[in-house]
Design a protein that fits this description.
- The protein is of the alpha/beta class.
- 47% of the residues lie in helices and 11% in strands.
- The strands form 4 sheets. It has a 5-stranded parallel beta sheet. Strands 3-4 form a two-stranded antiparallel sheet.
- Strand 6 and strand 7 form a beta hairpin.
- Helix 15 crosses helix 16.
- The radius of gyration is 23 Å and the shape is globular.
């Protein structure tokens, strides 16, 4: 099945995404793909590549947030032998490796600011200069950029170059979160179940209406990826069942979340800060900056309790959440960064700032 067919659903918002893909794919124009984690940014980029004239060429994904800053340019642009200590041989960068095809720069907002200048030059000149070289190498590569952060906000903060931002966003594809296309949830759930059953040689179970209604009521902070993992978990633990009811899914789900804020009466018991923080982190997991999440939690807590919130608790809460997630992931920093919804580079800065581990 090609990538476009894997974008399953009949909602108007998903139809609009597919239409943009088909319009942009035949050209060489840069595309900025925006969406929360788990919405299908990789699938969209693959659909663009498969429907382009470059479909027979390579499709290369680069996670800008996973490359340490000190070796970023060497990895992406390449380097010459002897250009720095340890460079015992020439390295071909990702741009040259993607020659004749498509290069997807995921988490583009994590790209070091100094490297953004070089990327802009490559996009305009279609030439790359390896680290330690004075010669340029022609490259025939289409660049797609993906992000789950607001690049316009990053530009306003001076964290992302405005000229590169406008160069990348020639065409922008905004992938809606699953909670904004709930009509697609039943068809997605059935499709994921069918695919899992075929792969594992299982009978395809039937979903009751109460099961599909329950799935449609969830907030799904992890979006389509989370829904797929949930379906596969339930089928694994209920092998052989012909019918799946809501009760089969409840142990695997968080409590249904309201899609709009709900006002609480002032005579209710104040919500504990730890519980409030955990809830907001679950709902806003895809927001990259933990401080923004915590500030939101604090503002919400003050609105309910009408009590001042100590400013030093913001730092404490952030430190505690990072430590807790590191422990849960047994020190795995890459998984910790993904679970917190931040880039690895951001996590390393936080670890150094708080002297953790």
């Amino acid at each position: 099945m090609n990538a476009l067919d894997q974008l399953i659903g009949e909602s108007d918002s998903l139809r609009a995404v597919k239409s943009l893909i088909l319009q942009a794919a035949p050209t060489d124009i840069s595309v900025l793909i925006i969406g929360e984690s788990g919405t299908g940014k990789e699938l969209v980029s693959r659909a663009i590549h498969e429907n382009s004239s470059r479909s027979s060429g390579p499709l290369l994904y680069v996670n800008c947030g996973a490359i340490p800053q000190g070796i970023f340019e060497s990895e992406v642009f390449g380097h010459e032998r002897g250009s720095f200590t340890g460079a015992d041989r020439k390295r071909t960068g990702y741009f040259e490796q993607a020659q004749g095809g498509t290069l997807v720069l995921d988490e583009i907002g994590e790209m070091p600011i100094e490297s953004q200048v070089k990327l802009l030059r490559i996009l305009e000149s279609r030439e790359v200069m390896r680290v330690g070289s004075s010669k340029t190498v022609p490259v025939d590569v289409r660049v797609l950029a993906a992000t789950n952060v607001d690049l316009a906000d990053a530009v306003a903060k001076g964290e992302f170059r405005h000229d590169l931002y406008f160069r990348l966003k020639a065409v922008t594809i905004q992938i809606p979160p699953l909670r904004e296309r709930m009509v697609d949830i039943p068809v997605l759930a059935i499709q994921f179940a069918r695919e899992f059953a075929v792969r594992n040689r299982l009978a395809m179970p039937r979903f009751t209406s109460d099961a599909l209604d329950l799935l449609s009521q969830q907030y799904w902070p992890g979006n389509v990826r989370e829904l797929k993992n949930t379906i596969e978990s339930v089928l694994t633990l209920n092998r052989g069942l012909a019918v799946l009811h809501a009760d089969h899914f409840r142990p695997h789900l968080s409590s249904p979340r309201a899609l709009l804020p709900v006002l609480a009466s002032r005579d209710q018991q104040p919500i504990g800060n730890d519980l409030l923080l955990a809830t907001l982190l679950d709902v806003r997991r895809e927001v990259r900056d933990l401080r923004t999440i915590l500030e939101t939690a604090i503002a919400f807590s003050q609105a309910i309790t009408e009590e001042p919130f100590p400013s030093n608790r913001l730092t404490d809460l952030e430190r505690e959440q990072i430590q807790k997630m590191l422990e849960q992931n047994q020190g795995n920093r890459r998984k910790t960064a993904r679970d917190l919804g931040i880039g690895e580079r951001t996590l390393y800065r936080k670890l150094k700032e708080y002297n953790i581990g």
